[in-house]
Design a protein that fits this description.
Layout (H helix, E strand, L loop, with lengths): L1 H27 L6 E9 L5 H14 L7 E5 L15 E7 L2 H9 L1 H10 L3 E10 L2
Antiparallel strand pairs: 1-3, 1-4, 2-3
Helix pairs in contact: 2-4
Length: 133
């Protein structure tokens, strides 16, 4: 009887120890603060499908910057509520591991070349940057 109780105790103790070992490292590590860079472009010629396609082509090439973890190129959705901004032509949303990775992107030759080659297409750009809390 004593062996069975001891074995049960050891099994439960090992399980509790394993749970603690799994939980502690994630709490001990600093939390990664994902950085989102969201850009909205208003084209000089908003009715030009060719200009929109050219900008999308440029953004597709820009997605090759290695610090970008995920990218999304979009156009205004068909949703229609008073709080929704639909005046832009194209949006460009990027996810980075942290602010430092986004700063590398800003100075990267691919990004600088994109601005040089495509900035003639837009009349206005608004950027929303957000850091995970």
């Amino acid at each position: 009887m004593k062996k069975l109780e001891r074995r049960s105790f050891l099994t439960k103790a090992a399980a509790a120890s394993a749970l603690t070992a799994v939980a502690l490292p994630s709490e001990a590590k600093p939390k990664k603060k994902i950085f989102i860079h969201h850009v909205y472009f208003w084209l000089k010629n908003p009715s030009s499908e060719a200009d929109k396609n050219k900008l999308i082509e440029g953004l597709t090439g820009l997605s090759k910057v290695p610090t970008i973890r995920f990218h999304h190129i979009g156009t205004p959705a068909s949703t229609n509520r008073s709080v929704i901004e639909r005046g832009y032509s194209v949006s460009w949303m990027l996810f980075f591991d942290n602010l430092e990775e986004e700063e590398i992107y800003q100075k990267h030759p691919i990004h600088l070349k994109f601005v040089e080659d495509y900035s003639h297409l837009w009349e206005k750009v608004i950027v929303y940057d957000a850091e995970q809390i």
